[in-house]
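Input (structure):
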C-alpha cells in the first residue's frame, strides 16, 4: 500500500523508505486520517435516502438527507444534501446553500465533502473563486483517503493553481489517479514522460500510460498512441497500427485524430488510399478549427473541383 509523505504529500511506493520528491523518511504509521464519519453508526434514514436517490425519487431523497443532516449532524447526509442543492435534484438549485452543507461535512473531516468544497472554490461556484482555498480542501481530501482527489490535486501542482508548480509531484499524483483508471490522469502521465516534465524522458513509459488511457476510451490518448506508432516513438514504427488508432481517435471526436487519419487516407499510409475519405475527415477536423486540416483542404481544392 502506498504511503503519503507528511512533508510534501507525495504518494510513494510502499517499498520506498524515502520520499521520491523531498527525501523525507517513511513514517512509522501511514499518514492517513480516516473520514470522521467512517466508523459511525449509519442512520436508517440515510440508507432510505440513498435508496430513493438511486430510484430517481429525488424529492424524497433530498428531504431525508436534509432531515438526517440537520437532526443528526451526519456528515455523509450533509454532503449528499449539498449535492442535491448543487444539482437541483429534488430541491431548487442553490449553489451558495450547497456550499454551506459541504462546509459542514468538510469541517467534520468528511473527504468527499472536502473535495466538493475545493471544486466550488476553484470554479467560483456558490462561493468567490479562491485557488488557495481550493488547493487546501482538495489536498486535505486526498490526505484523508479520497483517491478521486488525486487528479485535481495533480493539476494544481502541474499548473500552479493555489500552490507553487511542481511537475514531479504532479506526475506522482497523475500516476496515482491513473492506477484508479482515471483516463485523463493516465494521458497526462504519458505527456510528462514523453516531454520530460518532472521526470527524465521515457518514451516507453509514455506509450504505456498513453495506451492505458486509450484503452479507457480517451480520444487524445488514442491519437497519442497512433502518433507513437506512426513515428516509432517508444515502439517499432507501424503505420497500420497508427492508422487504426487515428481512426478510433477520430471516431471519439478528436480533431487531431481526424486530421491524422485523413492524412493516412490521403497518402495510403496504413490504410487504402482514398482521397475522398481523406477530404471528409479533413472537413470534420476543420469544423473543429484544426489549422492543418484547413490547409490540407485548400491544397486539395483542385482535386475537389
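Output (sequence):
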Amino acid at each position: 500500500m502506498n504511503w503519503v509523505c507528511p512533508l510534501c504529500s507525495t504518494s510513494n511506493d510502499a517499498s520506498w523508505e524515502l520520499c521520491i520528491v523531498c527525501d523525507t523518511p517513511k513514517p512509522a504509521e501511514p499518514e492517513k486520517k480516516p473520514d470522521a464519519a467512517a466508523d459511525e453508526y449509519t442512520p436508517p434514514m440515510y440508507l432510505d435516502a440513498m435508496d430513493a436517490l438511486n430510484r430517481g425519487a429525488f424529492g424524497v431523497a433530498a428531504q431525508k438527507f436534509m432531515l438526517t443532516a440537520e437532526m443528526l449532524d451526519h456528515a455523509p447526509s450533509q454532503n449528499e444534501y449539498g449535492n442535491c442543492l448543487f444539482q437541483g435534484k429534488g430541491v431548487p438549485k442553490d449553489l451558495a446553500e450547497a456550499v454551506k452543507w459541504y462546509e459542514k461535512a468538510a469541517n467534520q473531516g468528511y473527504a468527499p465533502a472536502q473535495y466538493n468544497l475545493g471544486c466550488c472554490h476553484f470554479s467560483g461556484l456558490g462561493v468567490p473563486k479562491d485557488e488557495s482555498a481550493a488547493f487546501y480542501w482538495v489536498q486535505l481530501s486526498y490526505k484523508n483517503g479520497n483517491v478521486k482527489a488525486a487528479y485535481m490535486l495533480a493539476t494544481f501542482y502541474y499548473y500552479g493553481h493555489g500552490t507553487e508548480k511542481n511537475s514531479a509531484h504532479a506526475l506522482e499524483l497523475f500516476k496515482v489517479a491513473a492506477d484508479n483508471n482515471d483516463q485523463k490522469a493516465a494521458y497526462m502521465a504519458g505527456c510528462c514522460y514523453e516531454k520530460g516534465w518532472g521526470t527524465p524522458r521515457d518514451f516507453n513509459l509514455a506509450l504505456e500510460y498513453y495506451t492505458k488511457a486509450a484503452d479507457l476510451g480517451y480520444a487524445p490518448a488514442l491519437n497519442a498512441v497512433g502518433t507513437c506508432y506512426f513515428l516509432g516513438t517508444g515502439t517499432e514504427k507501424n503505420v497500420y497500427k497508427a492508422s487504426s488508432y487515428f481512426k478510433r481517435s477520430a471516431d471519439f471526436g478528436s480533431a487531431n485524430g481526424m486530421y491524422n487519419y485523413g492524412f493516412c487516407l490521403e497518402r495510403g499510409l496504413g490504410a487504402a488510399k482514398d482521397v475522398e475519405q481523406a477530404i471528409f475527415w479533413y472537413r470534420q477536423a476543420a469544423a473543429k478549427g484544426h489549422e492543418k486540416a484547413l490547409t490540407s483542404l485548400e491544397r486539395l481544392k483542385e482535386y475537389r473541383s
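Notes: The chain has a mean pLDDT of 91. The beta strands are 3-4, 11-12.
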